[in-house]
Specification:
single chain; about 550 residues; 18 strands; about 40% helix; binds thiamine diphosphate
């Protein structure tokens, strides 16, 4: 039954609700009041944040838990521009973020300039699509936005909503349902025969698992495939936990660590069959560019979109669903012993030795202690910086999306709001964020939002009064120390100011006690873990 009058904003909000959206984050200005009113009426909860950029990351945190796109709401001009970093991040890190901005009506903009800018033009290169909503097209725009955001490689879609369009009444909905494409299966034919032949005869096969596989929820298929054909696998940082990292064939993660690459790159190069299972190389550094020659080594690339990145090339490319492709290739392929000279165990041992867990105190000890003391079900987030590289190598993930981070865009200031979003969507799960002190300071104001929400994540800050990763690079280039070190601040006091618990720790015992308290606390907890400047030397 149709209720009239209905505003165009109501139609938009209802369609987004129908697509599974339950959370919106942002800060209103007068231009988006109708939108947030419509979202509320549709059953979408709005969280008022302290900075629009954090809103984008909180929305991402929710998405990782629910699988549904989440919403960033920003008012025109400064509000929209504050969200730019998290929108660009969603683009590179493949997050289906719906960005709703207000804007003035076209006629108004002809003679009025205050705060007015072309949002669409600015967002064009950092979104998959940008729309200007019309009243009669509200439902179509909403459905297109969700479709574009979630299909293929996910990403952000922007909808500019003119003020009078949002308020327009008597709007009807044209659509009853959205067409959802079936998963794509590799077709029978010579390519599939070739892939099966290679797999049947490979003596040193290896699999690289990436973000497309995560989006295809291919964990069970990857595990079954690797076990059947005895294929060791490594993952990108985003794909950590797609199969529990304790699995005997898991070689851990690759991405930013030269220390890990030292072991993993030669191993991949020694393979006679490389299977890229949903491997999107946007997370990888230049060391992974052109790592193999597809004319000399058989490379099967299974990807969500055709290869336009040219980071690597493949001998065969199936643009298809990861799990289905692996199942299809496996059917009719023969098995035989692989890596018969103990190479898999040797790699695992080398990685264990490269990232030892017995540090008395320092960043590795902190990560080790947190992983040991927090349940396997813990959700972790990482900010950008030296700590993230170590964390990505050392933090064992037991489930997909167990460690959330910005690994393509690599932005600072994401770990705290990502953890907040995850905690909002999964209040019963332990959630911990890991930030460097500089990255934490970018978003410290959101502790006010944490307090207002009454959620209880743990925020761990590596306190070294330094941009450790950049300081290290500066030193490696033999430059003088400049603009990379800063003050030692009382992070606990910041948390307490917002009603949180706080601990400053400098030993494993102190950290252990803080983690125990934090898990029982009535409020959120900040743990300031102090480490020496230069503590990451030789560890990355
Ligand atoms: C928004 C943003 N600004 C700058 C950078 C460049 N950058 C990468 S890591 C880093 C240092 C981060 O310092 P901190 O948060 O203290 O973490 P640490 O390296 O000490 O672990 C900087 C400045 C970035 N990635 N993102």
């Amino acid at each position: 039954m149709r209720h009239s009058p209905r505003r165009a904003a109501d139609i938009l909000a209802k369609r987004l609700y129908k697509a599974g959206c339950r959370h919106a984050f942002g800060m209103p200005g007068g231009e988006v009041l109708t939108i947030i009113d419509a979202l509320r009426k549709a059953g979408i909860r709005f969280t008022l944040v302290k900075h629009e950029n954090s809103a984008g990351f909180m929305a991402e945190g929710v998405y990782h838990r629910t699988g549904a796109p989440a919403i960033l709401v920003a008012t025109l001009g400064p509000g929209a521009m504050n969200g730019v970093n998290s929108i660009a991040n969603a683009h590179q890190d493949r997050v289906p973020l719906i960005v709703l901005t207000g804007c003035v009506d076209e006629d108004e903009a002809l003679t009025y300039t205050h705060q007015i800018m072309d949002h669409g033009a600015i967002f064009e290169t950092i979104t998959k699509a940008t729309f200007r909503m019309t009243a009669q097209g509200a439902d179509i725009v909403a459905d297109k936005a969700v479709g574009i955001a979630t299909e293929g490689r996910p990403g952000p879609v922007h909808i500019d909503v003119p003020i009078s369009v949002a308020d327009m009444e008597g709007v009807t909905s044209h659509l009853s349902g959205r067409t959802i494409a079936s998963k794509v299966t590799p077709a029978d034919g010579p390519d599939l025969d070739l892939a099966r032949g290679w797999l049947s005869t490979a003596k040193r096969p290896v699999m690289i698992v990436g973000l497309d596989a995560m989006n295809d929820a291919a964990g069970a298929d990857i595990q079954a495939f690797c076990e059947k054909f005895n294929v060791p696998f490594l993952t990108t940082y985003k794909a950590k936990g797609i199969v529990p990292e304790t699995h005997s064939l898991c070689l851990g993660a690759a991405g930013l660590s030269p220390l890990a690459d030292k072991t993993l790159v030669p191993f991949v190069q020694a393979a006679d069959l490389i299977i890229c299972a949903g491997y999107d190389p946007i997370e990888m550094r230049t060391g992974w560019r052109g790592l193999w020659d597809p004319a000399k080594t058989n490379v099967i690339d299974i990807s969500a979109v055709p290869n336009h990145h040219y980071m690597h090339q493949a001998t065969l490319n199936f643009v298809a669903d990861t799990g289905i492709s692996l199942r299809t290739i496996a059917t009719g392929s023969g098995t035989q012993p692989t890596w018969v000279n103990g190479e898999i165990d040797a790699v695992k041992l080398a990685l264990q030795q490269a990232f030892p867990h017995d540090e008395i105190w320092g960043p590795a000890a902190i990560i080790d202690e947190c992983r040991k003391r927090l349940p396997e079900t813990t959700l972790a987030t990482a900010d950008s910086g030296a700590h993230r590289i170590l964390l990505s190598q050392m933090w064992t993930c037991y489930e997909p999306r167990g460690l959330m981070q910005s690994s393509a865009f690599c932005t600072m200031g994401c770990a705290v709001p990502l953890a907040m979003g995850a905690k909002i969507a999964s209040p019963d799960k332990p959630v911990i964020s890991f930030s460097g002190d500089a990255g934490f300071l970018m978003v410290a104001g959101e502790l006010a939002t944490v307090a207002e929400l009454g959620i209880k994540p743990i925020f761990l800050v590596f306190v070294d009064a330094s941009l450790a990763l950049i300081e290290l690079k500066q030193r490696q280039r033999q430059m003088i120390n400049h603009a990379v070190d800063f003050g030692l601040h009382d992070y606990g006091a910041i948390a307490r100011a917002f009603g949180g618990d706080a601990y400053t720790v400098a030993t494993r015992n102190e950290l252990r006690a803080a983690l125990e308290h934090a898990q029982k606390a009535e409020t959120f907890t900040l743990i300031a873990a102090t480490i020496e400047r230069g503590a990451y030397d030789g560890r990355l």
